[in-house]
Every structure is written in C-alpha cells, then in structure tokens.
C-alpha cells in the first residue's frame, strides 16, 4: 500500500498524491471537523521498502508562542538560563532560520520526503511543555498546544501521529489532560520534560505516581525530552548545556525513575528516550555495581537497575554508526527507534543512511528500527 504524500512537487513514484489544497494557510477547515485520527495504514511501497517512522520530532505552535512572548518564558528554561551571550545569539538565529520548519506543514512534508520519512510522531517543541506557569494557565496552554497537534494528525492521518503535553505541575490536571489527549484527541502519547521546575519526577510533592499509573493504564507512549540541565552553572559555554546537559538530564531522570521504583510499580510503561538515552548505554554497569555494593542504592528496588533500563526505548540519534551499534547490542533492535530531532541543528539529517550503515545489522532488524518498533508502540496499523 502506498502512503499519501501532499508535498508540493514530489515526484517519488512510490507515493500516492492528493491535491495541494490542504497545504495552504488556513485550509485546515477544508479537512472537516477535528476528529481523532484513524490508525495510519502503511505496509510497503511497490519497491518493497518498509515503513519509516520518526519518533523524535517537534512542532512549535506560533499562536501559543505569541501568547506567552511577553512573559519571558526563557528565564524559566535551563537551556536559556545557563547559556552565554554567543549561545543565545546562535539560538535566536536558529529559531528565525528554522521557524518555517518548526511551524509550517508544507515545509515539513517536503523535508520528510527528502529524508525518506513516511510518518512523524510529532511532539511539542520542548519549550512548549509549560510547567512554569500557575496550573490553570499551564493547563490552558497545554490544551491549545494539543488541539493544534491533534488537528495536524487528523488532517494528514497518513503522515502524522500526535504526542501531546500535560501540565505536570498539577498531577490531577495532568491526568485529566492525558485522558483528553488519548480518548478525545486520538493521540498516541505525550511528551514530558525530565523534571518539573527543577524537581525530579519522583519528588513526592508532585504526586506524579498517578500520572505514570494512568499512562500505563492507557497504554500510551511517554516521550521524555530534556530542555537543558537544571544545574548548569558550569555548562554556560560552548553550548554545553545542550551538548552535555541534555543527555545528563535524561540520565538523572531515568535513574530516579528506576531507583525510586516507578518502573518497578509500573512495569508496562512505554517510555522513549531521545538522544539514544543519554549516557545510560555506556555506564549502566556502575549503577548495577552500586546496587550490589551499597545499602543506600537498593532501598526501593530489588533487581539490578539495568533490568529496568531494558524496559525503556531509545532513539537512534548518536551521529555515529559504532555508537548506534553499541546501543542496539545493549538494548536489542526491538527497543531502538529512528529519530531525527527535526528540525533543530542538533538533529540527525540523514537517519536512514545512519541506520543502513550500521555494521552487522540484519534487514529484519533495520526494518524494526526504521519504523516497525514505532508502529507497534504507537499502534500504527500496517
């Protein structure tokens, strides 16, 4: 079965095309009323190529960005707070240069076709996970972000599935919005940050145990994406709060989810980690050793930490075939998913070539990583 491509001027013979009317600004109304997107059905094109799904990509809602512009939200974001003047200047230019990719669907579709991506699991730009406002306003912003993402997925159901955001600063509101995302908007998951205003996700004051329990009950994906390291005083220069801080933030958050027992109490959680899971693939044995050697490292969990690590899923953003090979060897091809971090400059521009170039990787495993694993987690029918 071919998938529908709406990118202007696309000449790929394996794509089925429909009129470009839906691409014009304001044309979403022509797609009908918003509804939960039906399951995408893509098997293989006539050349035999398997499905390719990008688990890690972002959309910025320009209306919501304008709504909070006067509040200087960057002061609450570690990525902006712990950055020198040159980094801030480069980031401003990046947002300007890549704005069309972040927010314009026709540009995105062209890029997807160029990169060989059939479907994006599109999630909010990380700075549009609004945990810093008071809860009512945070919920309002989350709903606006989610409604637009759901609209995109409903309009182009064979090119996008949506992952939303929830106001984690209030656990009850987060659970309610999660249920709305899944049951009313047809979303396949949610993106969360690895901390809530500097508090670990397992901090008892947040009460997020009910959120994780609900995510497991609904059988949806949690995509946990960092926004810089929260204690980045030593990471101000050289974009270190992204280069080093993002994988470090993921590593710390996952360690808390394991050692504080969230993964033990919710064994069927489906959590996807960006940037290949930070440093976890390369230093898991130290965690296991600490668990064996020290009583303060097994106050909650009984099994070795690496056993819980194997329950997570990891994207392919490593920028190196040997590092990706190591990740696959450690976690298994069934737990590694194609990701790009589209459209940011720290993303992978050629994810298909990266996967194809991994040594000693079977065709079956390549197909899992390219899209089969994501299709299974996101319930994309093939």
SSE pattern: EEEHHHHEHEHEEEHEHHHEHHEHEHH
What number of structural domains do the residues give? 1
Output the radius of gyration: 20 Å
**CATH C-level name:** Alpha Beta
Q: Would you tell me the structural class of the helices and strands? A: alpha/beta
| Stretches with pLDDT under 50, minimum 5 residues | 1-33, 35-46
Question: What is the CATH topology descriptor?
Answer: TIM Barrel
| Proportion in β-strands | 5-15%
How does this structure look, described?
This protein has 382 residues and is an alpha/beta fold. The protein has one domain: Metal-dependent hydrolases (TIM Barrel, Alpha-Beta Barrel). The protein is 42% helix and 11% strand. The chain has 15 helices and 12 strands. Strands 3-4-5-6-9-10-11-12 form an 8-stranded parallel β-sheet. Helix 3 packs across helix 4 and helix 5 packs parallel to helix 6. The protein is globular and about 50 Å long. The N terminus is likely disordered.
Index terms:
382 residues, alpha/beta, TIM Barrel, 8-stranded parallel beta sheet, 15 helices, 12 strands, globular, disordered N terminus
Question: Can you lay out the helices and strands and say which pair or pack?
Answer:
Elements: E1 4-5, E2 16-17, E3 53-59, H1 62-68, H2 78-81, H3 85-103, H4 105-115, E4 119-124, H5 135-155, E5 160-164, H6 171-183, E6 189-192, E7 195-196, E8 199-200, H7 209-218, E9 221-224, H8 240-243, H9 245-259, H10 262-265, E10 270-273, H11 280-293, H12 305-309, E11 313-315, H13 321-331, E12 336-337, H14 351-356, H15 363-378
Parallel strand pairs: 1-2, 3-4, 4-5, 5-6, 6-9, 9-10, 10-11, 11-12
Antiparallel strand pairs: 7-8
Helix pairs in contact: 3-4, 5-6, 6-7
